[in-house]
Amino acid sequence: xxxxxxxxxxxxxxxxxxxxxxxxxxxxxxxxxxxxxxxxxxxxxxxxxxxxxxxxxxxxxxxxxxx
Length: 67
Fold this sequence. Notes:
With 67 residues, the chain is mostly helical. It has helices spanning 7-13, 18-25, 29-36, 45-55, 59-62; strands spanning 3-5, 63-65. InterPro entries: Cro/C1-type_HTH (IPR001387), Lambda_DNA-bd_dom_sf (IPR010982).
């Protein structure tokens, strides 16, 4: 079962650009882009927590398990 990353959906709901989120989370734009496109193999809990704080959401809003 693949893990689906809905980071782009949450960013659109919060009207936040990739550059703005990268600055708030203190992660490079390229690393966020890799995560956003679903090409990342892993994510640190600290990074996930920072993304959730910046987007005011829960981890389940960003990550889901597909069929």
